[in-house]
Amino acid sequence: MSDSNQGRRAIAALEAQAIAAMRKGQEIQALGAWRRILTLDPEYVPALTMVGQHAFQQNDFASARDAFQRITEVDGTDPRHWVNVALALQRLGDEAGEEAALVRALSVDPGDLLALLLRGGMYERQGKTHKAATAFGAAATVAPPIDRLTPELRPSLAHAMKYREEYTAKLGSFLDSRFDAVQRDLAGENFDRMQLSVDIMLGRKKRYDAQPMQHYLPGLASVEFFDRRDFPWLDAFEAETAAIRAEFLAVLREEHGFEPYISYANDLPLNQWIELNNSPRWSAFHLVKNGAVVEHNAARCPHTMRLWQTAPTPHQPGRTPAAMFSVLKPYTHIPAHVGVSNFRLVTHVPLIVPEGCRFRVGNQTRQWVPGKAWIFDDTIEHEAWNNSDKLRVVMIFDIWHPQVTLAERTMVSALMGALDEFTGTSGGFDA
Question: ω before 302 within 30° of 0 (cis)?
Fold first, then answer.
């Protein structure tokens, strides 16, 4: 038998002895076996690891450092080996060496959670607030949910998250004070977009973009609520709110023509619509549906229809335009959702709005006010609440997105026609 084979057999036997001793709690015997292995093979990583860990537990940080550093010379591809070196150097007060070891660990794996937490802690001890916040923020980003971490790591991650949160709050207060000064100097200017940019940067608000379910036209402005001043034709709707409401109340008294707003077949995935599918809690009285006037309903609302014809409604046969009265019953929540196409925008003309009703698009939550219309991009996540004990009623209709050119509008209509031709259907994409 060759010397190398004999050496491997001896190491294997000693390792078995060490493991057996560890299981019996015989620490001294186990350590002796590990050290005998190192006399046979000074680069045997499992033995170096156990010797280094024992030295660390005995507060012999110099010996621990030597063992861990020798491991990195054998195998520097495991970030945990470099973390062990950093921990030993931290106890020895060698901050430069500690930082260098953490750099090596993160060079191997930039997402190593323990290395990021240690780096944040090191910068915190050094009073390097900004660097500590960056490291702790990176740790919070890569970390799994805290309840999935080992118990030993949970306090460190909780500290990192709290540190980052407090740092961000201080930064936010500082930026707000500076912005206040700038806004005073530029009184009258609109800073909503810039303020939202800062809020998103600081994590105070989320970023919401257009996420249409089916049709997306690149390059269109994705705006939660559009500037009311850009739609002067809405003036007539606001001025005639009382007349529109009177026509709605007349059809409400007749109690027919309303249908569930959400109506999917039972064999389709309902997702967030389980509670409202085919439910009268959210209903619609359609004036125009799937691109066609609902003649019987429209005849009952002649004034409303004349006003509607003044709006820049989209033409997508079998799909749009659409116009309706949307009725939300008391204590009903419309869950967060997005529309199907950013070719068009959605108009709300509030008619009946009791206290406790609100509407969110992206980061903005507003209260409906009768006589105050708005236009929003429904391909941005939105939801609505009626937390009152009365009906909430809004007239809803769609319009072209104003940045869709005349040529593009023609192409959109052609696209829908081509889809129908290919599939052999009529409509079906509520674009």
Answer: no
